[in-house]
Amino acid sequence: MDGLDSYGQIEAVRYTFNIQIPALKLTLAHSWEWQPKTGQVSYESKDKDGKPVKVTYNRNQLNSAPANVKDEVDPAFMNDNYWFIFPFHAYWDTSATVIETDKQKLPIGAGTAKLMSVKYHAEAGGLRKVGGSAIGNARLVPSIDVVYTASSWNEDYLQPNAAM
């Protein structure tokens, strides 16, 4: 068993989501440890004043979580997790329309890459449910269009025996 077939065997995943946007003078780093089977999430980052923030919570018990977890940390987890395992979400989410186009010009720099366009259709006033078995509790988030361009993410990641 490899690839998507092995997903259920994952005990925990650690990753850091980094973003730098010099034009906005924005630099963020969110470090995560996520246990998909239990819903436990550990988070490390810095607040707006640069002070360290460390939180551990369970996504299955968000109703009893502190306000900062519900309003800031868990939405950041949803975003970072989505991009961390983007090909899996594109495969799992049957409500999305996924279109792949080969050899598209890169938006920045020279070269070409496969373009994966993911369109989420509006449901119930522009909101849709995401999550379920993929990342824990179902949550409502705005309907979005995502265009993701990269040469390394392709259909091989959705196949058994793919190198991950």
Give a structural overview.
By secondary structure, this protein is α+β, with helices and mostly antiparallel strands. It folds into two domains: 1-84, no CATH class; 85-164, no CATH class. Helix content is 15%, strand content 40%. The protein is built from two helices and nine strands; from the N terminus they run ββββααβββββ. The strands form three sheets. A four-stranded antiparallel beta sheet has the order 1-2-3-4, with helices on one face. Strands 5-6-9 form a three-stranded antiparallel beta sheet, with no helix packed on it. A hairpin with a 5-residue loop joins strand 3 (40-46) and strand 4. It is globular. The protein starts with 12 loop residues before the first strand and ends in a 15-residue tail after the last strand. Mean pLDDT is 73; it is low at 124-164.
Structural descriptors:
alpha+beta, 164 residues, 4-stranded antiparallel beta sheet, 2 helices, 9 strands
Strand order of the largest sheet: 1-2-3-4
Q: How big a fraction of the residues is strand?
A: 35-45%
Task: Report the average pLDDT across residues.
Answer: 73
From the spread of the alpha carbons, the general shape counts as globular
SSE run: EEEEHHEEEEE
The tally of strands reads 9
Radius of gyration: 17 Å
Counting helices, strands and paired strands, the structural category is alpha+beta
Terminal residue distance? 13 Å
Largest sheet: 4 strands, antiparallel
Which segments are poorly predicted (pLDDT under 50) over 5 or more consecutive residues?
A: 124-164
DSSP summary: helix tally? 2
How many structural domains does the protein architecture include? 2
